[in-house]
Amino acid sequence: MEKLNKVFRTAQLAAIDKYTIEHEPVSSLDLMERAAGIWTDRFLKIFTEVAGVVVIAGNGNNGGDGYAIARLLNRRGVPVRVFRIAGTQDRSPDCEANYRRWLTRGKVEELKQADDLVLQKGEIVIDAIFGSGLNRPVTGLAARIIKQMNASVNRVVAVDIPSGLAGEDNTWNDPETIVCAEYTFTFQFPKLAFMLAENEKYVGRWEVLDIGLHPEIIARQPTDWFYTTEDTVKAILPPSPVFAHKGTNGKGLLIAGSYGMMGAAVLGAKAAVRSGIGLLYCHIPGKGIEVIQTTVPEAIPDPDESAERFSAVCKLRDYDAIAVGPAIGQGPETVGGLEKLLRTWRGTTILDADALNIIAEHRELLDLLHEGCILTPHMKEFERLAGKSVNDFERLNKLSIFANQYRVHIVLKGAHSVIATPDRRLFFNMSGNPGMAKGGAGDVLTGVLLALAANKLNLLDLLRIGVFAHGLAGDCVAEKEGRRGCCAGMIAERMGEAWKRLEK
Ligand SMILES: NC(=O)C1=CN([C@@H]2O[C@H](COP(=O)(O)OP(=O)(O)OC[C@H]3O[C@@H](n4cnc5c(N)ncnc54)[C@H](OP(=O)(O)O)[C@@H]3O)[C@@H](O)[C@H]2O)[C@@H](O)CC1
Ligand SMILES: Nc1ncnc2c1ncn2[C@@H]1O[C@H](COP(=O)(O)OP(=O)(O)O)[C@@H](O)[C@H]1O
Ligand SMILES: [K+]
């Protein structure tokens, strides 16, 4: 049974917290103690040589976690200094309780001005000023202290969320008054903001810590945001039937490449034949036959009448899916070929790269999109389709509006590639690494998705599976060759290794 990994809005967390307290049951103070204990354990696993820590605690429950973490680290023999921000006194009840518990072991120094924060060499700063309760930009002394933290060379580790960062929309925020952490250990759920490139400088590397919030309320709370992990994919990846033959594994057509740009077709084809497709046809320009036959002998060439580019698919066989776009160019014949394809083929259609650029330029083609269409733009291609965005959060909104308006599935590619569905759900991918930010890596994804579509998986499942497996293959490459050494061809070659890890 598939367990959906949900991303909640920070405004929903209090209800989940409350339900857990009432139904586990557990006191809120014990829940905080549990969260702080799990946080401390993880911190000490990652940071094995800690000369000392400086906890900066606020007055809300995030500060409460900070005081509890200070006590637990101190108990484990770590030298701990604790600071609070002057002028603020109204601690939440659990923060107050942990503040008092800490006072039995050590003192709390007051930061009256930013310069009071003097850090020793090697001390790690634990940021527990604000958590998910932030409701406006940080100003005043707290803002100056955050700037001081960011200016220091000391490492900073955030409790739950970097102080000053809002969980979702930061359009209104002041980028200068958000803690820049090296690591964030967050409780139970990733925050949407962690998925966005623009927040990487604040969040650093992040991990979700399971603090045992109640599964019933997690299952019941609605959300339209999810994330895909290895477990999700293992649960939805169908097994290969023992009596499979190439017919049951599906027939797909890849329309890719132009004269002098055949690499994209080769990469897509290599990935498709390593991702379980029964029969792969490659529609390539007339002059591209030899390239495909020598590099991907498994593929059946379907040459275009044009020697140099895609102009038309003359014979539409009984394909289960078609992918079109990588390096096809945007010349007039190709525009005509794409238009004809969209008019005559209404099955599963993966549109990538130049197919998307053509649609962005010839906007009447948008009306030919249908529910079988999957669009796989990177950020720039999406901007061409939907216009510029002021930030990543706004782009996400545009993405889900676009998918809804045209009733299509979209994969917006990048770190944490996100799948948008026609019913406005978003699924963030958790595999992959920056080593994949190389030319051709997207062509590989197109091939993977074509293979899964030919296998007649439903669109959302095939996207979650394909995007994750593609990232996992990139991770396999990076593990062996390093990120710099990772290239698109290697990702295609390693698809088999990724599938082996995911198959039951
Ligand atoms: N989820 C869970 O189950 C668990 C959660 N836990 C922990 O709880 C944390 C959330 O705690 P929280 O709700 O008390 O919020 P937190 O951010 O600490 O304080 C907010 C306070 O600050 C204020 N304030 C807001 N913005 C401000 C600003 N810009 N400048 C100045 N003040 C500002 C605001 O007060 P206001 O001024 O609006 O009255 C509010 O009172 C969460 O991150 C996690 O660490 C764990 O203990 C275990 C289980
Ligand atoms: N930092 C990153 N982390 C994880 N995956 C990434 C990262 N950067 C790029 N990728 C992945 O690599 C692929 C790049 O695709 P794309 O930009 O279309 O390249 P091309 O058009 O050259 O084939 C996408 O699947 C994307 O998700
Ligand atoms: K924090």
UniProtKB/TrEMBL annotation:
Homotetramer. InterPro entries: Carbohydrate_kinase_pred_CS, CARKD, Nnr, Ribokinase-like, YjeF_N_dom, YjeF_N_dom_sf. It comes from Odoribacter splanchnicus. GO terms for biological process: metabolite repair; nicotinamide nucleotide metabolic process. PROSITE patterns: YJEF_C_2, YJEF_C_3, YJEF_N. Pfam families: Carb_kinase, YjeF_N. Gene3D superfamilies: 3.40.1190.20, YjeF N-terminal domain (3.40.50.10260). Catalyzes the epimerization of the S- and R-forms of NAD(P)HX, a damaged form of NAD(P)H that is a result of enzymatic or heat-dependent hydration. This is a prerequisite for the S-specific NAD(P)H-hydrate dehydratase to allow the repair of both epimers of NAD(P)HX. Residues 229-502 form the YjeF C-terminal domain. Keywords: ATP-binding, Isomerase, Lyase, Metal-binding, Multifunctional enzyme, NAD, NADP, Nucleotide-binding, Potassium. SUPFAM superfamilies: Ribokinase-like, YjeF N-terminal domain-like. Its cofactor is K(+); Mg(2+). Binds 1 potassium ion per subunit. (6S)-NADPHX binds at residues 61-65, 131-137, 160, 264, 378, 443. This is Bifunctional NAD(P)H-hydrate repair enzyme. Its EC number is 4.2.1.136, 5.1.99.6. K(+) binds at residues 62, 127, 163. Belongs to the NnrD/CARKD family. GO terms for molecular function: ADP-dependent NAD(P)H-hydrate dehydratase activity; ATP binding; metal ion binding; NAD(P)HX epimerase activity. Residues 13-219 form the YjeF N-terminal domain. AMP binds at residues 413-417, 442.
